[in-house]
Amino acid sequence: MSDFSRELAFKQDLFLGEIWSDRFFSLIQKKLDIKNAETVLHFNAGTGRNCFALAEHSRNTLQITGICETPQHFQIAQDKAAALKSPIRFQAEPVTDRTFDIVIADASLSRPEHLPTLLSQISAALRSDGTFFLIAAASGSFAEIFSLLWEVTAEDGGSNSGVIESLIAALPKLDSLIDDAKNADLRKIESEVATEIFEYERADDFAQSPLFADFLLPQWLSDFSCDELAVIRKKISRLIEKEYGDLPFRFQVKAAVISGKRG
Length: 263
What we know:
The chain is α/β, with parallel strands linked by helices. 48% of the residues lie in helices and 24% in strands. The protein has helices at residues 3-15, 17-29, 49-57, 71-84, 115-125, 143-153, 161-170, 174-183, 203-207, 210-220, 226-244; strands at residues 39-43, 63-67, 89-91, 100-107, 126-137, 186-200, 249-262. The chain has a 7-stranded mixed beta sheet with strand order 3-2-1-4-5-7-6, with helices on both faces. Helix 1 packs across helix 10 (210-220) and helix 6 (143-153) packs antiparallel against helix 7 (161-170).
C-alpha cells in the first residue's frame, strides 16, 4: 500500500469531511426518501463518512454498501466499520447485479471525463425502477480559482494557459449530464444546480489548504511535478494578496444534482 496514497485518504477523511463532503451530501439528503428502501449503494464512498451518516439517519434499518475509490480508502473505511461494529459493507469493486433500491454517487471530486462511466455503473447496480442520485461540479465552478491559475500559468509566456482553458471547458453542463444519464438507461430525471461558496480569510489559508493543495490542484495539473505545483501555490497566494488585500478569498462551486429511475 502506498504510504502517500494512504496519507491522502486520511487527509480526505480528516480535512474534507465538514468543509466539502457534508455540504454536497446534504444536497442529496434533501431529496432522499428512504422510507420504502432496503438496500443502498454509495459510489465514491471515500472512507465511509456519508455511509455512516446514512446508517445513523436510518437507525441502521438499511443495508448499505460503499464502493471506495482506492484500496487505501477501502482499508480505512473497513477499519472504521470494525471499530464501530457497523454492518456497513465496503468494497473496492463496482457491482453489476441490479439489486439496489437506491444508488448514490458523490462525483464532486471526480474528473469530468469519468462521469459517463460512473452513470453506467449506477445503472448497472439499480434494480428496475430503483432511484439514483448523483452530484457533480458543473460548468461555472471554480471560476475564481481558474482565473488566478490562468494568470499564473500565463506568466511563462502562456505555454500552460491552454491547460486551464481545457479545465474550464471540461466541466459538464447540466444538459450534458442529463444526456449522459439518459444514455445510461436512466429515466424520469430531475435536476437542480445549487451554488456552494467556500471562503478563506487569508491567501495562504487557501493556497495551502488540503482541499486545494492536495486534491484539486494535483488533479487539475496532473502533468506538473510536485515542485512545479509548490511554485504555483506560492504564486497563487501572492496574487490573492495583491488582488484581494485584506478581503477574504471566495470561490463558488455549481453543484449539479441529478436524480431519477432506471428505465
